[in-house]
Amino acid sequence: MHIVRYRSVSDSRPRIAVLNDGVLSTLPVAGMFELLNHRVEEVERMCADAAPDRSLSEVRLLAPVDGATEVWAAGVTYLRSRDARVEESTLKSVYELVYDAERPELFFKSPAWRVVVDGEPVGIRSDSELNVPEPELALVVNRFEEIVGYVVCNDMSSRSVEGENPLYLPQAKLYAGACALSSGIRPAWEVDPSDLAIRLRVTRDGAVIWDGTTSTKQIRRPFAQLTAYLFHSENYPHGVVLTTGTGLVPDLDFQLHAGDVITVTIDEIGELRNPVVVGKEHFDFLTAP
Ligand code: DO4
Ligand code: MG
Fold first, then answer.
1. Cβ(70) to ligand 1 under 6 A?
2. In the prediction, which pLDDT does 81 show?
3. pLDDT at 11
4. pTM of the model
5. What span, in angstroms and rounded, lies between the C-alpha atoms of 40 and 45?
6. Residue (of 264, 259, 240) closest to 123 by Cα position
7. Predicted local distance difference test score (pLDDT) of residue 12
8. Ligand 1 atom with the shortest distance to the CA of 105
9. Ligand 1 within 6 A of CB of 198
């Protein structure tokens, strides 16, 4: 089962539904933001009570966030991420220190309206030479700091901008098309996230040019520690998505190009596939009325 946002041709207003074997059961909420105002046990009850009302083939799936829900990201939570950043950066010690520190690295990634979904493009900055996808498991957290479910995230990153100076992190991480989420939220009551395979595959002109797999078991920090720091001094009245960091980073000789297709798959959670484009002009659709 997944929880999705969808739009149908007969109704311009996005709706929230449970998706089960190609059948949608619409939920009586105004948006995902309202669902994330409920306790997990209430969300579970609402999902169980929903009645099937349409087929997946009649609708378009949207990004799984809306309202004032924000996407935040944890960084350097896997050894591979620490080592890759030490390799690329002019200031290596910040990454070694944060990997071992009690306080995790957390950064703002995206408001809901900038998030792209499966099938839409992801972006590369036109002033960046070295760019990678970051395949990550993301937590969907309600206003009470409870994990409601999980989605697949691609935390697109400019290695050259971040590598030049860690203070450029917001420019390396927040730009048009940098945050992609899979459309379906896999409910927390249905899955154990402690050892899920995360796979990244990049194809160019139909041929695989990068393929790798890791497991959520390799993460250095408990999810509850990440959410505790996120909620320590801030409130998320419409809930929040927290992506938990990457355990897969290609070597420095790997470069994304326009036209590449990135596929991130997480066992039991879902799949996210996006073509790569360069430049913000490809993302006018995010601001169209
Ligand atoms: O420290 C920079 C960002 C790290 C990150 O996004 C990751 O480890 O996934
Ligand atoms: Mg990341």
1. no
2. 94
3. 86
4. 0.97
5. 9
6. 259
7. 84
8. 1
9. no
CATH ID of 70-286, from 3.10.20.30, 3.90.850.10, 3.90.180.10, 3.40.50.720: 3.90.850.10
**Structure tokens belonging to residue 130:** 């070295």
Protein residues placing their CB within 5 Å of the ion ligand 2: 134, 155, 246
CB atoms within 10 A of CB 279: 15
- CA 73–ligand 2 middle distance (angstroms): 7
The ligand with the least distance to the CA atom of 81 is 1
Q: What is the residue with the minimal CA distance to atom 4 of ligand 1?
A: 75
What digits encode the pLDDT tens for the residues 119-149?
A: 999 999 999 999 999 999 999 999 999 999 9
Low-confidence ranges of the chain (pLDDT < 50): none
pLDDT value of residue 89: 87
From the CA of 65, how far away is ligand 1's center (Å)?
22
* Ligand 1 atom closest to Cα of residue 157: 6
Q: Could you tell me if 242 and 143 are in contact, meaning their C-beta atoms sit under 8 angstroms apart?
A: no
Residue 288 pLDDT:
80
Buried b (16+ CB within 10 A) or exposed e, 70-86: bbbbbbbbbebbbebbb
Give residue limits of the domains in the chain.
2-61, 70-286
- The closest-lying atom of ligand 1 relative to the alpha carbon of residue 134 is 9
